[in-house]
Amino acid sequence: MTELRLDPLRRRWIVTGKRPSIPEDLDSGALCAFCPGNERFTPKAICERHSMDGAWMSRVFPDRAPLFRVEEDLGRTGEGLFDRMNAVGAHEIVVETPRHGVTFAGLTDEEAASAIGLWRDRILDLKQDRRLRYVSVFKHQRGPQTGHEGHGHSQILATPIIPLLLEMEFRWSLFQFERKERCLCCDMIEQEVRASKRVVDETGDFIALCPYASRAPYELLILPRNHASAFERDVDEAGRVRALAEFLKMNLRRIEDISPALQLIVHTEPNLAAPVPTQGWWKSVHEDFHWHIEITPHLDGGPPPLGAEGFYFNPISAEEAATVLRALNPSPGGGASEA
Ligand SMILES: [Zn+2]
Ligand SMILES: [Zn+2]
Ligand SMILES: [Zn+2]
After folding, report:
1. For position 237, which CATH number holds?
2. What percent of the chain has pLDDT over 90?
3. What Rg value do the Cα atoms of the chain yield, rounded?
Protein backbone atom coordinates (compact mmCIF):
# COMPACT_ATOMS: atom_id res chain seq x y z
CA MET A 1 0.00 0.00 0.00
CA THR A 2 1.35 3.41 -0.90
CA GLU A 3 1.56 6.44 1.43
CA LEU A 4 2.61 10.08 1.20
CA ARG A 5 5.66 11.28 3.11
CA LEU A 6 6.90 14.85 3.40
CA ASP A 7 10.57 15.62 2.71
CA PRO A 8 10.98 18.44 5.28
CA LEU A 9 14.09 19.96 3.68
CA ARG A 10 12.35 20.58 0.33
CA ARG A 11 8.73 20.60 1.52
CA ARG A 12 8.08 18.00 -1.16
CA TRP A 13 5.61 15.12 -0.83
CA ILE A 14 6.77 11.71 -2.04
CA VAL A 15 4.53 8.72 -2.83
CA THR A 16 6.24 5.65 -1.45
CA GLY A 17 5.49 2.00 -0.71
CA LYS A 18 4.58 -1.00 -2.79
CA ARG A 19 2.34 -0.25 -5.76
CA PRO A 20 -0.57 -2.73 -5.84
CA SER A 21 -0.25 -5.29 -8.64
CA ILE A 22 -2.84 -5.57 -11.41
CA PRO A 23 -5.61 -7.95 -10.18
CA GLU A 24 -5.39 -11.36 -11.86
CA ASP A 25 -8.74 -11.04 -13.66
CA LEU A 26 -7.62 -7.74 -15.22
CA ASP A 27 -4.20 -8.99 -16.30
CA SER A 28 -4.35 -9.01 -20.10
CA GLY A 29 -0.83 -10.43 -20.59
CA ALA A 30 0.49 -9.50 -24.05
CA LEU A 31 -2.96 -8.29 -25.20
CA CYS A 32 -3.59 -4.54 -25.18
CA ALA A 33 -6.18 -3.95 -22.45
CA PHE A 34 -7.04 -0.57 -24.00
CA CYS A 35 -8.14 -1.98 -27.39
CA PRO A 36 -11.86 -2.42 -28.25
CA GLY A 37 -12.96 -5.97 -27.44
CA ASN A 38 -10.64 -6.13 -24.40
CA GLU A 39 -12.74 -3.93 -22.09
CA ARG A 40 -13.07 -6.88 -19.67
CA PHE A 41 -9.44 -6.24 -18.71
CA THR A 42 -10.12 -2.71 -17.44
CA PRO A 43 -12.14 -1.63 -14.37
CA LYS A 44 -15.68 -0.43 -15.14
CA ALA A 45 -15.60 2.82 -17.12
CA ILE A 46 -16.39 6.02 -15.19
CA CYS A 47 -17.39 7.65 -18.45
CA GLU A 48 -17.37 6.80 -22.15
CA ARG A 49 -17.90 9.00 -25.19
CA HIS A 50 -19.33 7.43 -28.30
CA SER A 51 -19.07 8.08 -32.02
CA MET A 52 -22.07 8.18 -34.36
CA ASP A 53 -22.00 4.39 -34.87
CA GLY A 54 -22.42 3.82 -31.11
CA ALA A 55 -18.92 2.44 -30.47
CA TRP A 56 -16.80 4.19 -27.82
CA MET A 57 -14.40 6.85 -29.04
CA SER A 58 -12.71 7.57 -25.69
CA ARG A 59 -13.21 6.20 -22.19
CA VAL A 60 -11.95 6.78 -18.67
CA PHE A 61 -11.59 4.23 -15.88
CA PRO A 62 -9.60 3.82 -12.63
CA ASP A 63 -6.01 2.64 -13.10
CA ARG A 64 -5.70 -1.12 -12.62
CA ALA A 65 -2.89 -0.59 -10.08
CA PRO A 66 -3.71 2.87 -8.67
CA LEU A 67 -1.13 4.93 -6.77
CA PHE A 68 -3.97 6.84 -5.04
CA ARG A 69 -7.26 5.50 -3.67
CA VAL A 70 -10.41 7.42 -2.93
CA GLU A 71 -11.79 5.07 -0.25
CA GLU A 72 -9.24 5.83 2.46
CA ASP A 73 -9.09 8.44 5.25
CA LEU A 74 -6.35 11.05 5.04
CA GLY A 75 -4.86 9.67 8.28
CA ARG A 76 -2.43 12.57 8.74
CA THR A 77 0.11 11.59 11.38
CA GLY A 78 3.50 12.74 12.62
CA GLU A 79 6.53 10.58 13.24
CA GLY A 80 8.84 12.78 15.30
CA LEU A 81 9.66 15.69 12.99
CA PHE A 82 8.26 13.86 9.94
CA ASP A 83 4.75 14.00 8.43
CA ARG A 84 2.84 11.34 6.54
CA MET A 85 -0.65 10.66 5.25
CA ASN A 86 -2.48 7.98 3.34
CA ALA A 87 -2.37 8.15 -0.46
CA VAL A 88 -5.97 9.38 -0.74
CA GLY A 89 -7.04 10.46 -4.18
CA ALA A 90 -7.78 9.13 -7.61
CA HIS A 91 -5.65 7.65 -10.38
CA GLU A 92 -7.48 7.30 -13.68
CA ILE A 93 -6.66 6.42 -17.28
CA VAL A 94 -8.16 8.19 -20.28
CA VAL A 95 -8.00 6.05 -23.43
CA GLU A 96 -8.08 8.62 -26.22
CA THR A 97 -8.98 6.49 -29.22
CA PRO A 98 -10.13 2.96 -30.09
CA ARG A 99 -7.27 2.77 -32.62
CA HIS A 100 -4.02 1.19 -31.39
CA GLY A 101 -0.66 2.82 -32.08
CA VAL A 102 -1.93 6.35 -32.82
CA THR A 103 -0.22 9.36 -31.21
CA PHE A 104 -2.22 12.37 -29.96
CA ALA A 105 -1.29 14.30 -33.11
CA GLY A 106 -2.75 11.43 -35.15
CA LEU A 107 -6.16 11.49 -33.44
CA THR A 108 -9.14 12.69 -35.44
CA ASP A 109 -10.42 16.13 -34.37
CA GLU A 110 -13.42 14.35 -32.78
CA GLU A 111 -11.20 11.98 -30.79
CA ALA A 112 -8.91 14.77 -29.58
CA ALA A 113 -11.90 16.92 -28.58
CA SER A 114 -13.49 13.96 -26.84
CA ALA A 115 -10.30 13.26 -24.83
CA ILE A 116 -9.98 16.95 -23.84
CA GLY A 117 -13.67 16.92 -22.82
CA LEU A 118 -12.97 13.93 -20.57
CA TRP A 119 -9.96 15.69 -18.96
CA ARG A 120 -12.24 18.65 -18.20
CA ASP A 121 -15.14 16.57 -16.88
CA ARG A 122 -12.92 14.46 -14.62
CA ILE A 123 -11.20 17.56 -13.14
CA LEU A 124 -14.59 19.15 -12.42
CA ASP A 125 -15.90 15.95 -10.82
CA LEU A 126 -12.78 15.19 -8.74
CA LYS A 127 -12.62 18.78 -7.45
CA GLN A 128 -15.90 18.14 -5.65
CA ASP A 129 -13.92 16.04 -3.17
CA ARG A 130 -12.75 18.64 -0.63
CA ARG A 131 -9.91 16.39 0.55
CA LEU A 132 -8.20 16.77 -2.83
CA ARG A 133 -6.13 19.90 -3.37
CA TYR A 134 -5.04 19.36 -6.96
CA VAL A 135 -5.96 17.39 -10.09
CA SER A 136 -3.11 16.63 -12.54
CA VAL A 137 -3.65 15.69 -16.17
CA PHE A 138 -0.59 14.40 -18.00
CA LYS A 139 0.54 12.17 -20.78
CA HIS A 140 3.77 10.26 -21.34
CA GLN A 141 3.81 9.44 -25.01
CA ARG A 142 6.43 6.92 -26.02
CA GLY A 143 7.58 5.81 -29.45
CA PRO A 144 5.88 2.78 -31.09
CA GLN A 145 5.23 0.08 -28.44
CA THR A 146 3.26 -3.12 -28.07
CA GLY A 147 0.66 -3.70 -25.33
CA HIS A 148 -1.24 -0.85 -23.66
CA GLU A 149 1.90 1.36 -23.63
CA GLY A 150 1.42 1.72 -27.39
CA HIS A 151 -2.24 2.73 -27.08
CA GLY A 152 -2.86 6.49 -26.82
CA HIS A 153 -3.81 7.33 -23.25
CA SER A 154 -3.39 10.03 -20.65
CA GLN A 155 -3.49 9.89 -16.85
CA ILE A 156 -5.33 11.80 -14.17
CA LEU A 157 -4.04 12.06 -10.59
CA ALA A 158 -6.14 13.78 -7.94
CA THR A 159 -4.10 14.31 -4.78
CA PRO A 160 -4.45 15.75 -1.26
CA ILE A 161 -1.26 17.76 -1.92
CA ILE A 162 -0.18 20.34 -4.47
CA PRO A 163 2.73 19.10 -6.61
CA LEU A 164 5.93 21.06 -5.89
CA LEU A 165 6.27 22.52 -9.40
CA LEU A 166 2.69 23.80 -9.34
CA GLU A 167 3.19 25.33 -5.92
CA MET A 168 6.19 27.21 -7.27
CA GLU A 169 4.14 28.50 -10.22
CA PHE A 170 1.28 29.55 -7.93
CA ARG A 171 3.66 31.37 -5.57
CA TRP A 172 5.57 33.25 -8.30
CA SER A 173 2.35 34.17 -10.15
CA LEU A 174 1.05 35.62 -6.88
CA PHE A 175 4.38 37.38 -6.19
CA GLN A 176 4.18 39.16 -9.56
CA PHE A 177 0.50 40.01 -9.13
CA GLU A 178 1.03 41.54 -5.69
CA ARG A 179 3.61 43.92 -7.15
CA LYS A 180 2.02 44.80 -10.49
CA GLU A 181 -1.64 43.81 -10.21
CA ARG A 182 -1.22 42.03 -13.51
CA CYS A 183 -1.01 38.39 -14.59
CA LEU A 184 2.54 37.27 -15.35
CA CYS A 185 1.50 35.07 -18.31
CA CYS A 186 -0.73 37.78 -19.83
CA ASP A 187 2.28 40.12 -19.74
CA MET A 188 4.48 37.39 -21.20
CA ILE A 189 2.05 36.71 -24.09
CA GLU A 190 1.87 40.40 -24.93
CA GLN A 191 5.65 40.78 -24.93
CA GLU A 192 6.26 37.56 -26.90
CA VAL A 193 3.73 38.51 -29.59
CA ARG A 194 5.43 41.88 -29.94
CA ALA A 195 8.93 40.33 -30.15
CA SER A 196 7.68 37.31 -32.19
CA LYS A 197 11.03 35.52 -31.82
CA ARG A 198 9.75 32.65 -29.74
CA VAL A 199 6.16 32.36 -30.96
CA VAL A 200 5.62 29.12 -32.90
CA ASP A 201 1.91 29.37 -33.69
CA GLU A 202 -1.09 31.52 -32.79
CA THR A 203 -4.81 31.75 -33.41
CA GLY A 204 -7.41 34.08 -31.94
CA ASP A 205 -7.87 31.55 -29.11
CA PHE A 206 -4.45 30.09 -28.32
CA ILE A 207 -0.73 30.74 -28.60
CA ALA A 208 2.22 28.30 -28.69
CA LEU A 209 5.67 29.53 -27.78
CA CYS A 210 9.09 28.29 -26.74
CA PRO A 211 9.59 29.61 -23.19
CA TYR A 212 12.40 32.21 -22.89
CA ALA A 213 14.29 29.97 -20.45
CA SER A 214 13.35 26.57 -21.93
CA ARG A 215 14.90 23.87 -19.78
CA ALA A 216 14.95 21.29 -22.60
CA PRO A 217 15.27 21.54 -26.42
CA TYR A 218 11.96 22.29 -28.21
CA GLU A 219 9.96 22.72 -25.03
CA LEU A 220 6.59 24.21 -26.00
CA LEU A 221 4.08 26.16 -23.93
CA ILE A 222 0.45 26.45 -25.03
CA LEU A 223 -1.68 29.16 -23.42
CA PRO A 224 -5.14 30.63 -23.96
CA ARG A 225 -4.83 34.16 -25.43
CA ASN A 226 -7.37 35.56 -22.97
CA HIS A 227 -6.78 35.30 -19.27
CA ALA A 228 -8.25 32.23 -17.54
CA SER A 229 -6.97 30.50 -14.40
CA ALA A 230 -8.78 27.17 -14.82
CA PHE A 231 -8.52 24.92 -17.86
CA GLU A 232 -11.69 23.09 -16.78
CA ARG A 233 -13.83 26.25 -16.76
CA ASP A 234 -12.22 27.85 -19.80
CA VAL A 235 -12.86 24.94 -22.21
CA ASP A 236 -16.52 24.94 -21.26
CA GLU A 237 -18.26 24.52 -24.59
CA ALA A 238 -17.88 22.38 -27.71
CA GLY A 239 -16.45 25.12 -29.95
CA ARG A 240 -13.74 26.00 -27.45
CA VAL A 241 -12.82 22.33 -26.90
CA ARG A 242 -12.63 21.82 -30.65
CA ALA A 243 -10.42 24.90 -31.09
CA LEU A 244 -8.01 23.59 -28.43
CA ALA A 245 -8.05 20.06 -29.95
CA GLU A 246 -7.10 21.41 -33.38
CA PHE A 247 -4.42 23.76 -32.03
CA LEU A 248 -2.91 21.08 -29.78
CA LYS A 249 -2.79 18.50 -32.58
CA MET A 250 -1.25 20.97 -34.99
CA ASN A 251 1.56 21.79 -32.59
CA LEU A 252 2.07 18.21 -31.45
CA ARG A 253 2.67 17.34 -35.11
CA ARG A 254 5.58 19.80 -35.08
CA ILE A 255 6.97 18.30 -31.88
CA GLU A 256 6.53 14.74 -33.18
CA ASP A 257 8.66 15.66 -36.20
CA ILE A 258 11.41 16.21 -33.61
CA SER A 259 10.47 13.23 -31.39
CA PRO A 260 7.33 11.05 -31.05
CA ALA A 261 8.29 10.43 -27.41
CA LEU A 262 7.13 13.38 -25.34
CA GLN A 263 5.52 14.54 -22.14
CA LEU A 264 2.41 16.72 -21.99
CA ILE A 265 1.12 18.30 -18.77
CA VAL A 266 -1.90 20.52 -18.11
CA HIS A 267 -1.33 23.14 -15.39
CA THR A 268 -4.56 24.53 -13.93
CA GLU A 269 -5.65 26.26 -10.72
CA PRO A 270 -5.80 24.29 -7.44
CA ASN A 271 -9.02 22.95 -5.96
CA LEU A 272 -10.53 26.06 -4.39
CA ALA A 273 -13.11 23.93 -2.52
CA ALA A 274 -10.39 22.26 -0.44
CA PRO A 275 -9.60 23.79 2.97
CA VAL A 276 -6.46 25.95 2.77
CA PRO A 277 -3.61 25.93 5.28
CA THR A 278 -3.35 29.74 5.46
CA GLN A 279 -6.11 32.32 5.41
CA GLY A 280 -6.31 34.12 2.08
CA TRP A 281 -4.07 31.45 0.45
CA TRP A 282 -5.80 31.53 -2.98
CA LYS A 283 -7.47 34.90 -2.73
CA SER A 284 -6.27 36.22 -6.10
CA VAL A 285 -5.65 32.95 -7.98
CA HIS A 286 -8.41 33.71 -10.54
CA GLU A 287 -6.51 36.86 -11.49
CA ASP A 288 -2.87 35.86 -10.95
CA PHE A 289 -2.66 32.33 -12.43
CA HIS A 290 -3.00 31.55 -16.15
CA TRP A 291 -3.61 27.90 -17.14
CA HIS A 292 -1.35 26.34 -19.76
CA ILE A 293 -0.12 23.11 -21.31
CA GLU A 294 3.58 22.20 -21.18
CA ILE A 295 5.00 19.90 -23.85
CA THR A 296 8.53 18.49 -23.70
CA PRO A 297 9.89 16.10 -26.34
CA HIS A 298 12.19 13.36 -25.04
CA LEU A 299 15.10 13.50 -27.41
CA ASP A 300 17.25 10.63 -26.15
CA GLY A 301 15.16 9.13 -23.38
CA GLY A 302 17.71 10.04 -20.71
CA PRO A 303 17.48 12.77 -18.08
CA PRO A 304 18.55 16.26 -19.18
CA PRO A 305 22.20 17.08 -18.50
CA LEU A 306 22.65 18.62 -15.03
CA GLY A 307 18.87 18.12 -14.47
CA ALA A 308 19.52 16.01 -11.38
CA GLU A 309 20.12 19.21 -9.43
CA GLY A 310 17.07 20.96 -10.87
CA PHE A 311 19.47 23.11 -12.89
CA TYR A 312 19.38 22.64 -16.63
CA PHE A 313 21.71 22.96 -19.58
CA ASN A 314 19.77 23.32 -22.83
CA PRO A 315 22.04 23.48 -25.89
CA ILE A 316 19.23 24.81 -28.15
CA SER A 317 17.98 28.30 -27.34
CA ALA A 318 14.25 29.07 -27.36
CA GLU A 319 14.68 31.39 -30.40
CA GLU A 320 16.46 28.66 -32.37
CA ALA A 321 13.85 26.04 -31.37
CA ALA A 322 10.95 28.34 -32.34
CA THR A 323 12.54 28.98 -35.76
CA VAL A 324 12.81 25.22 -36.40
CA LEU A 325 9.28 24.44 -35.15
CA ARG A 326 7.70 27.30 -37.13
CA ALA A 327 9.29 26.00 -40.34
CA LEU A 328 7.80 22.51 -39.91
CA ASN A 329 4.61 21.91 -41.85
CA PRO A 330 2.06 20.72 -39.32
CA SER A 331 -0.56 19.66 -41.86
CA PRO A 332 -1.40 15.92 -41.63
CA GLY A 333 1.33 13.93 -43.34
CA GLY A 334 3.45 17.06 -43.71
CA GLY A 335 7.14 17.14 -42.88
CA ALA A 336 9.63 19.97 -43.05
CA SER A 337 8.38 22.64 -45.42
CA GLU A 338 10.51 24.37 -48.00
CA ALA A 339 9.58 27.80 -46.69
ZN1 LIG B 1 -4.52 -1.13 -27.98
ZN1 LIG C 1 -3.28 35.82 -17.58
ZN1 LIG D 1 3.32 25.18 -15.69
Report:
1. 3.30.428.10
2. 81
3. 20
